[in-house]
Structures are given as C-alpha cells and as structure tokens.
Amino acid sequence: MAGRLQAELKKKRPFASLDQEALLNIARTSDRLQICFERLFREHGLDSGSQYNVLRILRGEGKPLPVLEIASRTIAVTPGITGLVDRMETKGLVKRERCTEDRRKVFVSITDKGLALLAKLDGPIEEMHARLLSHLSDSEKRELIRLLEKAREGTPR
Fold first, then answer.
1. What residues make up the domain containing 102?
2. Is residue 130 part of a domain?
3. How is residue 134 annotated by DSSP?
4. What is the pTM of this model?
5. CATH number of residue 80's parent domain
6. How far apart (Å, rounded) are the C-alpha atoms in residues 154 and 116?
7. Of all helices (H) and strands (E), which one includes residue 143?
8. What does the alpha-carbon distance between residue 21 and residue 3 come to, in Å, rounded to a whole number?
9. For each of the chain's 157 residues, which pLDDT tens digit applies?
10. Do 65 and 59 form a contact (C-beta atoms < 8 A)?
11. 155 within some domain
C-alpha cells in the first residue's frame, strides 16, 4: 500500500527504501512548517526565520554575545551569519560593538526596536505553534520529539 507522501508526490513507484521515505517525509514536513513561519516573519518585516532566531537568542541571553556564539546557538546552520547580522543592523534590530580588549571580537546586542518586534511576535508565534500541532495529543508530541531527537543522533554536529 502506498504511503501518503507517495500519493502527494504522485510518485508511481514505491520509495527505494523505508529510510528514503522517512527522510523525505521529514523534509516535506519541515518545508510545510517553515512556509507558515516564513509568511508570519515577512508580515512583521523579518527576512527569515534565522533573523527571528537571532533575536530570540539575544533576548534570552539578556546581554551582548559574540557573533560566533550566536551562530553556534541557531536552530539551523547559518553560514552567512555576518551578512545576516549586517541586514539586521541595517533594520535597527541589533547593534554591533567591538570588544575593547580584543578588536577582532564583535559583540551583538538586541535593540529596543528588536525587543519590540519580538514582543509583537510572541502571541502570533505561540498561536502558530498551537495551531500547527493541535491535532496531535500530548503523548504524540512527546513521541515525535523523542523520535526526532533520536533521528538527529545519526547526524554530524
């Protein structure tokens, strides 16, 4: 019997393996969820989920952080972190300061404008989280988390 993804993709032949079908299901689900969040971010003037993630990291830390520390904490790998911070600084969401002891080190902090934007997004983000997973029971959500964490164990860091 063909799985739902096979039908969604109008794939005539079965997947080459269960591994392939599982990974493509993860990719398809991730894409669908990201689209929902990216629309919300764009409505509020953010270019990407990465910008939102940086703002959340800075608000949560409560103090300036080095650029590379921010990069190490992001949900998705952000190879162009410097460019990302540049764009956010241009929008007035963050500011950069050189370390006085080591001029090579750059610290980034969230601005009042960045904090205000996050405060404005807090409610809609929480509503989105609830809406996107409301059809799952709490025990299904815990199982999903467990399985995704286990799947990540097989990936390089």
1. 19-125
2. no
3. T
4. 0.85
5. 1.10.10.10
6. 39
7. helix 138-152
8. 9
9. 567 888 888 888 988 999 999 999 999 999 999 999 999 999 999 999 999 999 999 999 999 999 989 998 988 777 788 899 999 999 999 999 987 777 778 899 999 999 999 999 999 999 999 999 999 999 999 999 999 999 999 888 6
10. no
11. no
Contact 36, 128 (CB under 8 A): yes
Residue burial 121-151, b: 16+ Cβ < 10 Å; e: rest: beeebeebeeeeeeeeeeeeeeeeeeeeeee
For 53, other C-beta atoms within 10 Å of its C-beta total 18
In the chain, DSSP assigns E strands to: 65-66, 94-98, 106-110
Query: Residue 49 corresponds to which tokens in the numbers above?
Result: 């989920």
- Dig out the tokens for 35 from the structure: 């689209």
